[in-house]
Design a protein that fits this description.
The structure is a single chain. The chain is α/β, with parallel strands linked by helices. It has a single domain, classed as Aldolase class I (TIM Barrel, Alpha-Beta Barrel). It is built from 11 helices and 8 strands. The chain has an 8-stranded parallel β-barrel, surrounded by 6 helices. Helix 7 packs across helix 8. The longest helix is centred in the C-terminal third of the chain and has 16 residues.
Length: 239
């Protein structure tokens, strides 16, 4: 993808989402639709409307259930306009394979990405609350390798784990990175963050960016202005 930015449509109405698509479709590579919008509107309605408005879609619903149920959900989102959707990698290899088989059986054939460790979590939360011992990066790499063994195209991970995942899984194994925050934006509820330039520098393939683009500081300007400013920052790294 020439433009790696996926703008997060984290709004609760379809008109609000489509206004952002209209403003941003010439400035970003695609759009992430997630729980807030899809729960309020309905995932297939969202996919159809955003695709018709000119947006390529990442369906970020993080499926995790028994393989048969996840396969059914995968079939439901494997629609025209969907580039990829995600499942929790810690749901296991059988579950991920079921999602992939369902996606591949569709006409759209979207890629499937595995979620490693949420970017809102830190190592203390992983160790003490989730009770997964060891270094967070080791858990992220372990889940990435599991996702790769199940045939997935890549993973969703923090920018801080991209280099280790690429080293373990190869440069062609794709990484989708949320929690990307320009220096002029607030971190909000994300903990393991990097700037767009830093994220591209460590090898990320896609950058999911929400509030810094959809609700930028007044000094930055419009959502399109914010996206363009981020593109310029990325271009400086890619030269």
């Amino acid at each position: 993808m020439n433009n790696p930015i996926l703008a997060a449509l984290d709004v609760d109405t379809l008109p609000d989402a489509l206004r952002l698509v209209e403003q941003l479709r010439d400035h970003v590579g695609g759009f992430k639709v997630g729980l807030e919008l899809c729960t309020n509107v309905g995932v297939q309605t969202v996919i159809a409307a955003v695709s018709a408005a000119g947006g390529e879609i990442f369906v970020d619903l993080k499926f995790k259930d028994i393989p048969n149920t996840v396969a059914a959900a995968a079939r439901a989102v494997s629609r025209p306009g969907v580039m990829f959707f995600n499942v929790h990698a810690d749901g296991g290899a059988a579950m991920m394979r079921a999602a992939l088989e369902a996606a591949n059986a569709s006409a759209a054939k979207p890629k499937v990405m595995g979620v490693t460790v949420l970017t809102s979590m830190d190592e203390a939360t992983l160790n003490n609350e989730v009770r997964v011992p060891g270094a967070l990066v080791e858990q992220a790499v372990h889940l990435a390798k599991l996702a790769q063994s199940a045939g997935l195209a890549g993973v969703v991970c923090s920018a801080h784990e991209v280099a280790a995942i690429k080293a373990a899984c190869g440069a062609d194994f794709q990484t989708v990175v949320p929690g990307v925050r320009p220096s002029w934006a607030e971190a909000n509820d994300q903990r393991r963050v990097m700037t767009p330039a830093e994220t591209i520098r460590v090898g990320a393939d896609y950058l999911v960016i929400g509030r810094p683009i959809t609700r930028p500081p007044e000094a930055i300007g419009s959502p399109a202005d914010a996206a363009q400013k981020i593109l310029e920052e990325i271009a400086g790294v890619r030269q």
